Amino acid sequence: MQDQAVIIRQVSKSYGNTRALRDISFQVGKGELFGLIGPDGAGKTSLFRILTTLLLPDQGSVTIEGYDVVKQYRKIRNLAGYMPGRFSLYQDLSVEENLKFFATIFGTTIKENYHLIRDIYVQIEPFKDRLAGKLSGGMKQKLALCCCLVHKPAILVLDEPTTGVDAISRKEFWEMLGRLKAEGITILVSTPYMDEASLCDRIALIEKGSIMAIDRPENISGSFSKPIWAVRSREMYPLLIDLRQYPGVEKVYLFGQYIHLTLGNEGQEPGRMKKFLEDKGHEEVEIKVITPGIEDSFIELMSQQKRHE
Amino acid sequence: MRTILFLIQKEFLQIFRNKGMIPIIFAVPIVQLVIIVHAATFELKNVNLYVVDNDRTTTSRSIIHQFEGSHFFSLSGFSFNYSDGEESLRRNSSDAVLCIPRGFEKKLVEGQSTGFQMVVNAINGSAGGLINGYTVSMVNEFNRGLSSGRANFTLTKPKFIDLTYSFWYNPELNYTTFMVPGILVILVTVISLLLSGMNIVKEKEIGTIEQINVSPIRKYQFITGKLVPTLIIALFELSFGLVIGKIFFNIPLEGNLLLLFLSAFIYILVILGMGLMVSTFANTQQQAMFVSFFFMIVFLLMSGLFTSVENMPQWAQTLNQINPVAHFIRIIRMILLKGSGFQDIQNNLAYLLGLAFLSLSLAIRRYRKTV
């Protein structure tokens, strides 16, 4: 098992009566970019806090690079970098002072691992004397990532790093993660954004403390059993109401500018649907069959799980 | 070691970058010493006395003159009607009403015993007691004058027991001399309790504690880095306060200052341990503030700062055995006013040392990096 960076075996955690994690097991390979995808409150943060030795699991065991998170927590604190959901910098210290602080508490210096953070740091270096509290959101994000990286961690755990960050900064951030992966760092990242999932090597879909699926992103969307129909017209809300009455329809939900729906065996011709809608008085009707995305799979899996319960 | 030094440096950087902090460090001692010492005094001056004289004779006037002549009383009003006096008491324009009944002089001359009435506003019990004491001593003096006046007739010399006082350690009974050391204790306590407790809770509040917890930094390194800056600032406050006390109030510095600072060092460790303990329980600065204030007020009011510990009921005195503030106030007053040496305070010091060890080790045990 030498090529596994993280091994999680049957981990459960409860807060009182709330079961945050139920019997979770999976492995992350060395140098892998692994995504944990799920809505708020699914248990992503609890799992990450267990990985970074901040929380003790009720049951199960976790090893990182061969070290147990409970018994050998001190080893893990040297080799893991953790960026919590609300990563906080000292607002009253400057960019450079923050970085120097985090380097020191990890027993290293900025110089020692400068090569690792150089690509990111050069972008914020012009502001190195500015107080962290006065940086923009994207800049703070970059500084936070630098602070997690400065001790050259073997594994990086990022809890919703792109929540509340603008679209361009998000894109840049994922490019940075790609470069870090090339350096051989194992990265675990959680996100509520499904579009970011396709940028990971493998993803786990998590909901209500259970893992619903683990696979490569393209396989997860490929595992979707039925084709998706995307429909739009000028008036979306009446369209949604009317589509629910279309014969053979299974699931209808809003998805961005389109309405996505799956159909049973009946009514599989676009022409017939178009006529049905135009008879109801809809204008500018556009219908296409698309390949399902991660979010479609997620909604499908969630409704399957509900049926099981 | 390098890590601890860096942490200390970072704390100082943050404290001095905080724009509110420098004025607080320098203004608090000045305000507390200059204002509180002058204002919060138990010395009784300017008691407003309302006089109701129903006798209107030479004797009654001479009593009134005697009250007027003393620097404790000043006349706030005069009437022949008792209800005017009561009204004045109710409106708070007088603190006491002196009421001399009709026929006062007549009875005295006839050799009968007589008296007058003193109605005192005793909302502040100790002030009321003091007014009573002054009045009694005034009446005694008057009586003495009466009997010596009568001695001419009886040809026997009256005998009195004469009392001579000698006030040690504070010969002029100067209230500021007594108060300044106490205020210095408040100062050191407030600074060390609030700075230490607030500091760690602040890291919790802004979330940086998470990063520190996942780092390999050791507990003792982190806590030392937090406590040393507070310790330095608190000791600085003490020296600053002593300088102000010397310059503005000329307080005596009888004892060994080195011994004073050693005691202060141990005392601050006790308070830092308590502040640290509060910070392990509290999640917000507000919680920490309230809990700290609760303990601080109990400790300070019980400590003998304002009221003498010896006057408290037995259970309170017993309870005060565990009050670190009471021990330190005793130490600082003994060193500054009496010039006490190590032998005189070693019991207090030993207790504080034990408490410092206890509170710090408990606090460090309770501070966990894992939730």
Describe the structure.
The complex is a heterodimer of chains A (309) and B (371). Chain A is α/β, with parallel strands linked by helices and 309 residues long. Chain A folds into 2 domains: 4-217, Rossmann fold (3-Layer(aba) Sandwich); 228-291, Alpha-Beta Plaits. Chain A is 34% helix and 28% strand. Chain A is built from 10 helices and 14 strands. Chain A has helices spanning 44-51, 73-79, 95-105, 114-124, 137-149, 167-182, 217-222, 236-244, 270-279, 294-308; strands at 4-15, 18-29, 33-37, 59-64, 67-68, 80-83, 155-159, 186-191, 202-207, 210-215, 228-232, 249-255, 258-263, 286-290. Chain A has a 6-stranded mixed sheet, with helices on both faces. Chain A has a 4-stranded antiparallel sheet with strand order 2-1-4-5, with helices on one face. Chain A is globular, with a radius of gyration of 23 Å. The mean pLDDT of chain A is 84. Chain B is built from 14 helices and 4 strands. Chain B is α/β, with parallel strands linked by helices. Chain B has 2 domains: 2-40 and 174-366, no CATH class; 47-154, abc type-2 transporter like fold. A 4-stranded mixed sheet of chain B has the order 2-1-3-4, with helices on both faces. In chain B, helix 3 links the parallel strand 1 (47-53) and strand 2 (73-79). Chain B has helices at residues 2-17, 21-39, 58-69, 82-90, 104-109, 125-154, 175-206, 208-214, 219-249, 257-281, 285-302, 314-320, 324-338, 342-366, and strands spanning 47-53, 73-79, 96-100, 117-120.
List keywords for this structure.
heterodimer, A: 309 residues, alpha/beta, Rossmann fold, Alpha-Beta Plaits, 4-stranded antiparallel β-sheet, 10 helices, 28% strand, globular, B: 371 residues, abc type-2 transporter like fold, 4-stranded mixed β-sheet, 14 helices, 6% strand
